[in-house]
Each structure stands twice: as structure tokens, then as C-alpha cells.
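A quick word before the example. In earlier lectures we treated sequence and structure as two separate objects. From today on, think of them as two lines of the same record. Here is Envelope membrane protein written that way.
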Amino acid sequence: MNSHKSFEKLGFIPRSICRTTVRFWQQLLNSSNFIVLEEFRFSRYQTIASLKCLVNLILLPYFIYLILYYSIYFFFPETYWFDQISQLNWTKKQQNYLQIQNKQDQHFFDLFLSHSSKSNIESCFYRKLIQTNQNKIHTKFTQLITNFCMFFIFWYLLIKSTPQLIILKSFCLELIYNLSDPKKAFLLIFSTDLLVGFHSSQVWKLSLEIFLSFLNIHLTHDCILLIISIFPVFLDTIFKYWIFRFLNKISPSTVAIYHNMIE
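And the structure line, produced from the sequence above:
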């Protein structure tokens, strides 16, 4: 049995034309049954390899992150991280000060509603405040170390998964090429409107805030607005260049339907 490649490179001639020509000659030679069996095996291998790649790059890092996070969280006590607060820069100290002040107002109001004595209010408040601050510092430092370790782990997984990534890319391209031209145009319009459309700024703002919060990075509101104002424009330029340079050569009918649907 001849070995087949797990992916096919893109060329100047569309692969559908090459495949149709090769299949026509093979059918003339009465080898269609063998072709169908080989294509089924190739498609099954490509699908399994793509699913393994997605598992290795999504689920595996997630479980590694959980194991690493809780290992660091329980290995280092809270007092260790609390002693590191003196090494924070001025911005971090200012943010912690504002958070503590907000917590102070919140706890004081809650205890005041409980009609406790002043001494009980102060003792309960300071005890709760210290515990809350220690937990917050403990969590932040744990996230910082875990994210730093996960960066190298994910980079290693990407390097080791290079063949699977190539197969996954080929699998996704096959799915897109098998779609009809109106479906391709609809998918293209949906992608562009979602990423660079009129309402995309709110999506980018929310996504950026969640991502920065996950990395424990704090940016000012003006910096976030600057990023979400520039990045969609950059993506829109890339989309237009890709449509003009590559998609117009691969599938001109899709580009024509795309422009008609926009108009």
C-alpha cells in the first residue's frame, strides 16, 4: 500500500481541478474502489489527528493550568505572599490601596447594620480586612507564577504539535473549500462583522478586559480604548488585503457574491 501525505500544499492551480483530473484517469483504469477506500482512510486519519491537536492545545493546557495553579496555591502559604507586598511598585500599591478602601467601606457598612458595638465592629473589620487582603495577594501571585509557567508549557506544546497543526490547517481548509460560494460569502461577512463591525468594539473591550484580568495585568481605561480603536482597523486592513490578493485568485465567484451581499 502506498503511503499518503497527511496534508496537501496549496498551489497556483486549485486542488479541486487536480483531483477531478486524477480521479477521472483513475476511474478509466478501473481503480475507483481502491481510491474510495484510500480517501476514506485518509479522511479518517486527518479527522482523528485534528481532534487530537485540538485536545492537546485546549483541554490539556487547561488541566495543566488547574494542577499547576492549585499546587502553587497550597504549596506556598499566605504569609509568604503577604511579605512580598513591600516589593510591589507604586501602581500596584495604589491599586491595592483603593481595593482595601472599598472593602473597608463595604465591611464597615455591613457590620454597622448588624447593630454591633464599636469595639466589635473595629475588631471584626480589621480581622476580615487582613484576611481578605492576604487571600487577594495570595491569589494574584499564584496566578502570576502559573501564567508565567504556562507560557513556556504552551510554547513547548505548539512546537511538539507542529505536524498536527499542519494537518488541522489542511482539515479546516478542506471544510471551507467544500462549502458552496454563498456559504463562503456568508461566513466571510459574519467573520468580518464580528471582528471589525460596528458593534465589535464592545466585544473587543470585554475580551481584552477578561484577558488582562486573567494575566493579572492592569491597564488604564485610556489604554484599553486606544487598543480597541487601533486593532480592529488593523484587522480590517488585513481582511481587505487578503480578499484582494488571495481570495480573488482562489475563488472569484465568492468575492463577487461577497460584494453583492454587502451592497
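Notice the following. Residues 1-7 have pLDDT under 50 and may be disordered. We will return to this example when we discuss secondary structure assignment.
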